[in-house]
Amino acid sequence: MSQEQPNNPLHGLTLEKILARLQEHYGWEGLDEEIRINCFYNDPSIKSSLKFLRRTPWAREKVEALYIKTFCQ
Description:
Layout: H1 15-34, H2 38-41, H3 46-55, H4 57-71
């Protein structure tokens, strides 16, 4: 059922991989500066951030957009 998506830069990436790469690149302070989300400021961790991002579509969209801007252009 899965189809190739050659024009989708996020195809094949999990939210966890996206977040881990952004955190490695920016650090938690840098992520907080780029995207003002409390989960990046107040006691940040991959686990707690993933929990929040999976429940909050607008925040996930911002994280995905930052990933595309940072690594896919």
